[in-house]
Design goal:
It is built from three helices and six strands; from the N terminus they run ββββαββαα. The protein has about 180 residues and is of the alpha+beta class. The chain folds into three domains: about 5-30 and about 40-50, no CATH class; about 55-110, no CATH class; about 115-183. α1 runs antiparallel to α2. The radius of gyration is 35 Å and the shape is rod-shaped.
Amino acid sequence: MPVFSSISNNSHNVSSHGLFSHQNRLVDNKQDNLDQDTSIQPTHLEIEKPESDDFQKQQEVQKLKARDQEVRTHEQAHLSAAGGLATSGASFSYQKGADGVNYAVGGEVNIDTAAIAGDAAATIRKAETIKRAALAPASPSSQDVKVAQQASAMANKARAELFQKNQEITGDEVKANKISLSA
């Protein structure tokens, strides 16, 4: 009478004495006759179960759930730091999981990155907010870093404009003081 034992998740080992079905594998392991007796020894059968499709689907769904949470947290960090500069809520790209649920696998938040015409100081403050929003997530993407670099360049340009404007004002004040002193 056959004895069934040892259920395994390994679906890749096939015995030369094995029987294969798409769900379970029966491996016939005949024991050697250690005695001089020529009688037939009992047959020992093992059932090896291939890695379950359900298990693989569960793993896929768990990875998608984790990615979904990561993406949503990332985009929420942008939104929170952007304040009024966000021109929309977060938008997401989705992947359908084995369970039929759509999971966010990518996302974006649109932010107003235009300089404020005629107000260099306000442009500097805006650029600093843009940079903080871009770098707000725990792991900024390469696009996030690029936006932060652009915001830094915008702030530097505004600082140069502000410096130049201050130099012109200072120069005009000096001229005005000279004129009033000599009159």
